[in-house]
Every structure is written in C-alpha cells, then in structure tokens.
Amino acid sequence: MSDESARRPHQATKPSARGSDSTGTRSVGPGDVVGQHFRLDELLKKGGMGRVYRATDLRLGEPVALKLMDPAIVGTERARARFFREAQTAARLRSKNVVQLLDFNVDAATQVPYIAMELLRGEDLAQRIARGPLSYEETKAILGDVCSAIAKAHRMDIIHRDIKPANVFLVEDDDGPLCKVLDFGIVKLGDLGLDPQGAPQTDAGATLGTVSYMSPEQIADARGVDLRADLWSIGVIAYECMTGQRPFRGESLFELVHKICFDVPAPPSRLADVPSGFDAWFARATHREIDRRFTSARELIEALRALAGRPPEPPLPLPRPSPPEPPTNQSWASDANQIDIGALKDLTFKNAVVREFLDSANKHFVSGSKGLGKTLLLTYKRSVLSEIYLAATGRERRHAAVQFIPEGRPYLDLMGDLPTVDQTRSDLMSGLHECKRLWSFSFRMSIVSYQSAATGAAGAGDPADLAPLPRSLRGLLEGRPVEPTMVLKELLSLTVRQINQVVDAMERPLERRLRSLHSGVFIFIDKLDQALRRLPRAAWIHMQAGMIEAAWDLMNANRHVKIFATIREEAFSAYESDIKTNLYGATSTLRYAKHELFELLEKLTYYYERLPLREFIHLDVVSAGRSARAESTFDFLHRHTLGRPRDLVILASEISRNRKALDERTFTQIVQSTSAGLLVANIFDEMRVFLEVLCHRDKRARFLGLLPCDVLTHDEVVEVWCRFHEVDRAFYDAHGRDADDVYHPFRELFECGLLGVLGADPGTERQVQRFRQPHDAVVGSRHELPRSRYYLLHPSLRALIEPLPGGGRFHAIRHVIIGHGEPWPRHWDLVVDVQRELFRRPDADEEIGGAVFSLLDRLATEIADGEGPDAARRAIAASPTFARLSAHLERIHWDDLHLTLLELFAGERREETEPTDRVEVAMLLIDIVRSTHMIRSIGDTGFVDHLHRLRGSLRGATNPRLLKGTGDGYLAVYPTVARAVDAARVLRRAVDDPAQLRLVVHWGWVRMSDHDVIGTEVHRLFRIEAVTEEDRADEPSSGIGLPRPGRVTLSRSAAAALPDPSRADFRRAGAFRLKGFDDPESIWVEIDEVDKVDEIDARP
C-alpha cells in the first residue's frame, strides 16, 4: 500500500463498463465485493502493481486496507510472482514495525489476487518531509523503527530493495509514535529467490526500486545486492529527513544515475543544523565501497544514536560540488598554484592512483607528464599531512613537532630556472651518481639550516667544520633556513672542482647533524623539470632521477625524514639504475582513462559553473562536420586534447568566457583554435629536451607547412622528410636512417602525441588509432617511426597549419574521425585513397570533385544511420549517380580515380549467396510520444514501470520472435506483417491512452545472429515515425492525413506484404522524403470506421 504513485493525487474511477479486457479479467471498483468478504469503499492509492482500497471486512465489520493486483498484468507470471512474494514476506515478518497481513487469496469472480492488511491511520514519511525537515530526535526515532523492521528482515535473509520515504508510514497510535515499513513486493529472499524451475523471479536485468534511494551496486545489478544496499537507502532517507533535500538529484534518469555513481553530495552540515559527526555518519552509510559501509542495521542506528548531545556540525569553510558554491566570478584554474589550498578537496578528482597516493603512507613520489596535476596532488598531500601534524591537539600535540620544508607559502619548494651553466657543470649533471651527491648534500644542508633556525644553534658543531664552505653557503648554517633547491642552485654556482671539495668536506659534519635529528622533517619539492628545461637531455633526466634516489636513500638512513616530490614521467621511465626497482613501490604514476577525464570535467564544471557539463555547453552532440557521424560534445573535446586534465580545463575556461554566445559553430571554433593555439603550441616547449627540430619555431613552421593532408602514407612521410632536409629520395634510401646530423621531425611529432598510427585492438583485433598518451614512455629515437599503414595528424594541428606559409595547400580528409582510440573501419582506407587522388589534381573539373564528395557524403550518411558499410557501398554502386560518374571518368581517362572509386563502390557479386544469418521479418516499432514530458509527469520509476507494462503486454499476448528495448520504447519482430499489426492493436488496447504510442510496422531483412540480434541497417527505415508536411514529396491524398500517434503506420514494403483483407484498414498517405533514402518513400496509415464513413460520403 505504498506505491510511488501515492505521492501524486489520484481520482477514483468507476468500474469499467466493459465486461472484460484482453486478459479475461473484470475491473472492480468501490461497491464491489472481493473474496466474498471485503467490500471496496474508497480508492486510496494506485501504482504500477495495482490499487489499494479502503475496504470493510463484512464478517467483522472492521475497516481494512485491500491491495488488488492490476487486472492488466494478472496474466503476467512474473508480476503474479512478485505480488505473491509480497504476501509471503509480510506473513513471515511478524513485527510491530511491519504492516500486518490479515488475508491473502485470489478472487474467484475476477481471478485477481488480493492482500488484506491492517488499515493504518497517519501519513507516510514522504508527506511529512514535504512539510519541512525533521529534527535529529524525530529522525532518530523514525529510523530506529525502520532499522528494527529491516534488521529482522535481514536476519531472515530478506533484502527489501525499495526503502524510501513513501514506504515508511508514520502511524497515529494512542500509545505513542510508531512507524511501519511497507511494500516488500520487490524483496530479495535468499531461500525463495527462484521459481520451481530455478529461474529468478525478477525480470532479467530489471532495476527495481526508486532510483533516488538506490545504491550504485543496485543500479548496476538489482538482483546481486546484499543487505548493505538497504543501509545505503536508510542513509539517504536520514539525509533527506535532516535537510529536506535528497542528496542525489537530476533532471533526467541518466543524470541522476551518474550523480549516484560518481558525484559527491553537499555535506548535510552545509544545508541544516545537524549533530557533530552526522556528516561522517552519512558518508559511511553511503560509501561507494560497500565494505566500508555499516555492516548491519543495528550498527547503523547505534552510530546515529551515539551522535545525541553533540553540538551542531560546524559549517564547512568551503563548498562541495553539489550544489557548488564557488566564489563569484571565479575563473577556471589551469595551474595548481592558482588554487586556494582550502579548495583542493572540492577540485581534486580521485581515481584509484590519486586516492592511493593521498591515503598511503608509503607513497612519496608522483610521476607524470605535464598537465596531469602533479603539483595539485603534491599540494593536496601536504595539506592532508598538515591537518594531521600541525593541527594536532591534546595528547596528539607531539605530532606538531614535525618541521615542514618549506613552511607556510609557498607550500612546495618550487625550483626556479637555473642560470646558464658551462659545459663542465652540464657534464657533471648528466651523470646519475653525481646528481645524487648534489641532491644528498642539498637535502641535508636544508634540514640542518631549518633545525639551526628552530633551536637558535649556530653552525654545524665545530666551527672548523664550516671552513670548507664558501661564504654564501656558510650563511645557511647560521640561522637562516633555506630550501633544498636554493642550496642546489648555490652549489651549482661554484666550479666543478669547488663543488666536489665542498661536498666531500661536509660529508661528516652533515652526517653528524643528521644523526642528532630526533624530530620529523617533511620536505616537498616540485617543478624541477621546468627549471631544468634548458639543460641537455641527459642532465634533465638525471637531475630529476638523482633527486628521488637521493631522497630515497636519505629516508632509509633516517626515519624522521620524509621527502615528497614530483618527477616527469619522461624522466622516470628513461633513466636506468640498480635501485630503480625499489622506487616503483613509492611512486604513483598518474594516468587517466577517458571515462575518468569525463568524470573529472563533470566535477569541475559543477564547481566553477554550478551546472552539469551538458547544461554548461548547451549541446549534447556536435553534428556532422568532416564526417556524417555526429559525436558527443565530450568526445569532440577529448579528441582535441592530448589526454591531460589541464587540456580540458583550458578548453572549458575558453568556453566559459564565450558561453553567452555559444552555439555549435562557436563551440567547435573555440575548441579547435584553443587546442591549436594553447595546447599544441605549448607541447613543443614542454618536450623540448627530446626535440632537435620542432623546438625551433621557424623550423617547426617550415616543416608543418610542407604537410599535404592529415592522413599520410609512408611514401608521403618520406617525401616531406626529403623536402624539409633538401635532399632527394636517393639520399634518404642510402643514408637517411643513419645520418648523425639528420633528424626525423615526424618522430618528434609522434613523441609529442601529435602523430598517430594504426594498430590492432587486442580485444577485437580491429584497427584503432593510437597517439602517444601522457603515461607512455618516450623512446627518443630520432630516425625511425613505428610501422603503420597510415600516419595521422592530431585534429588540433589543422588550425595550426592552415595559417602557415604553404598551409593553404593542406587538405583535411573528410568522413574520417581522427583521435586516440577511435576505430579505423576497413573502408576508410579507400575513402582516404579516393580523396588523395582528387588532391593530386587540384586543377581538375570542380564538378567531378563535387560528384565524388556527394557519393562519399551519402556513404557516410547511410552508415551513420545504421546501414552496414558493405551494404551501403553496394547500394551506391548500383545507383545511377555512380554509373554516370564512372562513365565520365572513363571518357576523360582519369584511371587512378576511376579504379579507386570502383574498388570503394564494388557492385554486387552474383556468385555470393545471401548471408545465412539474415531473415525477412516484420518489425513493429513502439515509441513513446513525448517521453521526456511523461518522465517529468510520473517520475523515473513510473516511467520504468510503464515500459515494463508495455513489455509484459507484448510478451504475454503477442509472443514476438524477438523483443529489444530502444530506450523509450521497443522493437518487436514477428514472422508476418499481419501478426505485427495485430500485436500493435493488442498493445493499444492494453494502455490507458493509445495516443501516447507511435506504432510503425516495416517488412525487411535483418540479422538474427547471436552477435547482432537485429541489424542496425534497419534503424533508418523507421524515420517514417515522425514525418511532417515539410517532408511530403507529392500532393496529399484526399481525406488522408499524416500518421498519428495511436494509429498503426506501415512502410511501403509492409503494406505490400499485408494480405488484401487486412490492407482495407489502411490508406496511402503519400510519398515523403526520408533521410537515408534516394527516392521518396510511400507511407500507409490506419483508418477507423469514422474515416471509412467519411470516405464513402466523399464519393461522388
């Protein structure tokens, strides 16, 4: 008696005048007697499973609540099983906090099952929350009763799976407040979960319950949950009781599910006065790692009761991203130094690597390329440790003795640019051993300087120990604390001879001082790569590697010292050492999968813009440009980055500045120009130590200006190489791979992540595009490229090349989407070859180019609409347009283009037989009209229940050969068109409002194999579902209008396959232009008896 629809007003309806429906059951209503004993008095609630009435037990004269199963689903075995299961569960659960079962049976007259229950006086918790938040004491009392009922159910191996405010009833009881848990209709019973044949008693894959209160694991697999799914729901209810708001809200089902699975809700203490500790209680109750939740309902409620008497939770100083409350006019921060340290928790996206680094005591180093967030993560690590050691109180105050280096702002020791060094010092820094000595000296000198400043001591012990130090270094031990990088820069200002003398002479004094260290020292070092970027490659690598190895040795020698630092992944992966293996366990290597970058951008968009990503950009997809395949806005953004979080932040920042005037064209221009002007241009400076050519602006511009197009063959790569180095092909063949003074700019482009190759996907063995990602090692070979059939230029390079001298000759290949991880279908080879032939003759007739691109446009459009590539190519090969173009090319002897087109558009091979997995069948498309409006009206759960009822009616009464969901409807397959039309009419009778359904029938070939149960090439045929007069290609038929919802519509092939008697119920509405069809298509619409009378009257 607690269906979701109880929260919506319902008008009681009279019993249907119709004697029976398609199920053979009779509708009942107030005044009717059910089960010979119960008279229905008043309709209380209506839901997806049935109706709840106030009734009178005629035997005892007592009021009861009678739940009747909906007659429309009585014939559905699974629905009956669920209804029976509710009765069984209620009978087993004897508790004052569970609604009590009085009777259960099947009415003999109507064959409708019913449950008689005690009639409760009061209101459900949803109605109470609607009037405003509850106090802590009220919440505790209500959840105490809920947990009492649920704990007993759990002991009996019963999982409720639909705990929500509407299923918690607040009873008006003379003995005091009491609440009861309702609706055990979708419980999971450990010992009753299978029918006699062993089949689960819920629909396969069905996600039952109300989404807002579901745990992530229940959304993923409703049948695989345990008791902790119920505990999550109770935690969500507690949040709503205390704050008056649900923690997870979304305007669509997709958005709501995404928030439940990935979002961080606003802490309750930011929305209401809650007891201290309630934020932590809620976080544990709804932890996404189920092993970290409460283990039982008893533990959950005892932890909530333990909060009694605590003062209100102090308001947090900074916002959470849902709802985000960023400072007014705050711009997107592309560098961690622009972020206030207090905002790190709200801005940091935590994947597994990040979480491990922050939580583990054994992780000291962060490895990653530029733009992956190393500085932000190291700053966050320091912030976490500061809270532990510098904010300690009471008995933990001993932690506050830890010395942080640097102390205060800046939070990290950021090394500034090194002054110019001569060759001898450059050679010194090119050796790993020498770099470790420099850093070991610098670390110890810094620690001693901080200890001397803290204690007021002077010197390193004996004054004679200071004699080897130059005056600049001697002052460091005389009370002025200094960071390790400052010591290093001062040391490198000396000659190599002086450096060695100082390091050797100070070894023992520094060792003595370090041995006397008995308090903690934490050092944080960052951005070495940036300070060292003017050094040769070996020095750049070994200065970073020497730093982390010296840090590792020092930490092993003195347990009081902890050093945390960042290192570029290109340096960490490139150096070799006998102890490097030991460092892997202490190093976190940053990497982000594409889905993690999406979640990261969602999080930042909420923080900076107070909007979900979809609303921030205003666009769901970027429509066809160079390809007829539209792609999501995030896919488009991701393709124009180098796979780094910072790239997405920079693009989002530019979008934010132009958001008021944002349309699709502006969006694409912003992304393309920003990625070229900021992301790509900077990568050459960031990778300069690995570059010999592209690090020079003039050479880079000359090289890029030579590129003919964005998809290159190996021969074209060699041709550009020769032109750039001003040599002929014979020189390349003889010396190009071995010449010491000739570098391979294409290899440098590849190392920068701007040149892609084709490779086999290990999972599917299909060809996919591969660009170097930030976590991939840099080999640094200057002569060779990976083998590939084609070499692909990054999408961002196009906007960079076209303005260059010579860039006007650059051609972008159309109908090919370039990006890391994107597929490379087989026919794209030929699509590229066709365009390359056109580009080789720029002076050719423009009409030929137009005709060729018209065919390529059509091919891409049909494939995007679901047609198979081979079928689309054969269809074009048989078209008159291709025949005319082919004949023309033969006349003018453009043989290369002609042969390439013939290969791309090969005709039907007569000797081949029809694929054995294709059959000719009738297809019925059921589409819900205005589904978004319906979801807003009845809610996500109501919409899902509505879909389930449609599916039940189709399966129970029409027996389709195959039934497949389409998101907001179904596609059903039948052996004949007549069966499909009959199924549409049965479905129409089973719904309250047939005008909510759009019904289309088509006859054609589909695949019915295990891998593709319904061929995607048929999807375009259902574009007839929503034609308008603007699509009409002929004069309208007299008295026959457009297809209407609730009426069956036939395609031309379906009308032809329908027997003559049945075809009398349909009329031709006309011919219409449909996307994906060369010629107008005829459409037939269903007429009713009124239409037939009007048709007769209209005859002369």
Automatic annotation (TrEMBL):
Enzyme nomenclature, EC number: 2.7.11.1
Main subcellular location: membrane
Any GO molecular function: protein serine/threonine kinase activity
Biased composition (Pro residues): 311-327
Protein kinase domain span: 38-305
Enzyme class: transferase
UniProt protein name: Protein kinase
Pfam families for the chain: Pkinase
Annotated segments matching region Disordered: 1-33, 309-333
The keyword DNA repair is assigned to this record: no
Membrane topology, record value: Single-pass membrane protein
BP GO terms, sorted: cyclic nucleotide biosynthetic process; intracellular signal transduction
Organism superkingdom: Bacteria
InterPro entries (UniProt xref): A/G_cyclase (IPR001054), Kinase-like_dom_sf (IPR011009), Nucleotide_cyclase (IPR029787), Prot_kinase_dom (IPR000719), Ser/Thr_kinase_AS (IPR008271)
Key words, A-Z: ATP-binding, Kinase, Nucleotide-binding, Transferase
GO cellular component terms attached to this protein's record: membrane
Compartment(s): Membrane
